[in-house]
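Re: your question from the hallway

Yes, I did run it. Sequences:
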Amino acid sequence: MNIVVCMKQVPDTETKIRLKEGNGGIQTDGVKWIINPYCEFAVEEALRIRERNGGQGTVTLVCMGPDRAVESIRTALAMGVDKAIHLNDPLFEGSDNFGVAKILARAIQTIPHDIILCGKQAVDDDASQVPQILAEQLNIPHVMVVEKMEVDVANKKVTTSRRIEGGAKEVLEVPLPAVFGADKGMNEPRYASLPGIMKAKSKEVKKVTAADLGLKPEEIGVAAAKVKIQAYSLPPERQAGKKIEGGDPAQVAHELAKWLREEARVI
Amino acid sequence: MSFESIVFTLILLVSFAAFGYSAKKLISFLRLGKSEERFDHLAKRVRDVLTMVLGQSRLFREPLAGLMHFAIFWGFLVITIGTLEMMIQGIYPPFSLHFLGRIYSVLLFTQDLFAAFVALAVLYAFYRRYVSRPKRLQVHKEAQWDATLILLLIFTLMVSLFTLNGAEMARGSDLHAGAKPVSRAIAALFSALSPNALAVWSRASWWVHMLTVLGFLNYLPFSKHLHIMAAAPNVFFQTSRPKGALKAMNLEDESVTTFGVSKITDFSWKQLLDTYSCTECGRCTAACPANITGKLLSPRAIITQMRDALLEQGPTLLKQQKGGTLTSEEQELVNKTVPASWITEQELWACTTCRACVTECPVGIEHIDHIVDMRRYLTLMEGKISPEAQTALRNIENNSNPWGIGADTRADWAKGLDVPILSQVECGEVDVLYWVGCSGSFDQRNKKISVALTQIMKKAGVRFGILGTEEKCSGDSPRRLGNEYLAQTLMKENVATLNKYKFKKVVTACPHCFNTIKNEYPQFGGNYEVVHHSQFIAQLVKEGRLSVTAGKEISATTYHDSCYLGRHNDVYEAPRDVVKSVANGAFVETRRSRDKGFCCGAGGGRMWMEEKEGKRVNIERTEELLETGAKTIATACPFCMTMINDGVRAKAKEEEVRVLDISELLANSLL
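Structure:
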């Protein structure tokens, strides 16, 4: 069983986002970078699938990102991932979701893959696009927002369960290879052991460039992006809370309704 | 040689040989442990033996029980001289120590008197074990049996000594009758007996006494009473580390493949010696906040369970060490780990590292080290740590604080207060480096303490600065949660930051940061004068650098001792001085205070963990603080503040009782 996990490095959710001058995106200095939490569920699930399978199989991490992404790659390796492919090339920068999926697909095509696990979305742009496009590119099925996976190794299929509207659960059976988008609740990611951290230092991290994948500059990055970013802006600063005073509940309710309608404009 | 002497000599030889065999086995088990340097600081070690062994200092923490043990201990020491004399007489009857002259008379007198003391003490011990039955002596059947047998043996020794002396005296064959007042009284009881009967009484008593001594000697290695051999060396070999410091793990050595302690062979020989020294007196467990609030953890059980593991696995481990082939059953036995087969994770994680157990232990057992060593294994090797604690560790990794609040907001509490940040202070030099800590930087309630302390330092004209966003978690919680790797990373990073700047001392309002920076940073090249804010403020008041309206805090005030300030660092007076400087006499002590203080429940990383087992420690403590009738509860630790505050709210007393940090009390009274 060959398991591939796609991982994205994102700013920690607590990081204070500041914008660059002009329209240059967010300031990355002083940002604490972490593994996208949904990708972490994917990593953990990959490790658990292998463990349930008697330790048989290889877990390969594929991560696109600049040099700084290596730190997150090592964290995944410390958790128990076997090896990693680091898609690192300035030409990749500015790729949109389609471009990222194309690059990932190209890389995954070069290695054996039965199960491809992704986070259902990355908490930076929350686009939730790449896993599906990746599946299309590889011409294989995909299931998103997966909460539970049962792998039938012998018959090369996976039974997934996911939450859908109305509190219902949807159970799907998918033939492999396929792409799965991990949701919260799938598992509780492990805390890397110290021997794991030590071992991670000597595990293979293969740097792969656009040229290695046979991608031309015009096919990727900003040049090929179908989605162009027009502008970045920060959300409005949170206002202080408003307290409606007064002893008469009816009066208070009236004022609240008035405020909600006229000021907040929500009713 | 008479027939009797020959028989005795043979019995003596067999007894000593048997004891030697048992002792050798026990020592060979100790050798299964890892090496550890415990011969440094010899003067301190000798001092410890003088106070703790000869002076029995810890035992007197319970005055009556202490006196009882003191009598038995010293009685044992003096009477043993007589016992040795009797042994030699058994082989060669004419032998006597009377050549010592007057000293001999004094010796006999002391022995006679102490024998009586011991007998009385044993009776009192029986009374405690069977009548008054303090909770710590309510033990399982085998332990009760063991204790009873020991007491009976000691009592038999004393009674036979008196009947021997009494009979001899009544026969008129005791040349030193004058030196033995108690025996003389016994002799009066024998006066009616015939000389033949007296001779029989004398020989019978002698034999009962000697056989009991030898039986006792050979029972020791299989009993909790082994402490009479192991306790003195155990006290001698106590750690020379500062109280609050945990030992540093070597994480650089790449040949090491296992971290922390799981197998009995992972413990050091001193940790194993601890298990031989334990007399199961239960003083540790009686003081343990986890145990008192109904949790499974019992520090005594930790030690006895370690001993069980050692004695069960010892023979097989030795066989394995010698290259013997193990049967599958034996293999299964040696594969067992202590924090799985003998001690549960539940017990290990309930510990708040409050040091009450270590402080009470009369024989110098180091419970916290054992518990943290096993936690290290669980965390570093197995990742077996509660999800909440794991979240705290991840938060510290990502944002260098347990709450996971953005690291770039660490200095936000100081906005508008004009607090110098060291990286922005010209020439980077101040008198006081104010270490704010995570609580003081991120926790809403505790940020107010940072503001109060800032106000005080400004008022006193102290030239101080903070590290701002350069400051990181001190490493206290990760270290005590067993994550030595993260702790060392933080400590090394903080040392590198601190070493960039020039300052005279570090002042902090957090006893956990205080303890770690003061006692543990030297392990990583950080040597600073570290002062807790209670000490610093007390000093400012004493020097007259703060004008305070004494008596402003007219409501009755009590003070809750922080374990890491008190027991771990012996700071008891300074916070009280600060409180008293404003409370103007309306100060009440809480029942359990100072070195007998009761933990708030947040130490040892427990601050970040759920507490679902038994009663909550903070509730127990808060109830006790409320019992004093105080309207103000003063704390000197941000964790205590959180826990006691929660406790007061849980008891719905927040309208009547306020919880204030000592710095807030003082800041409120500044002129």
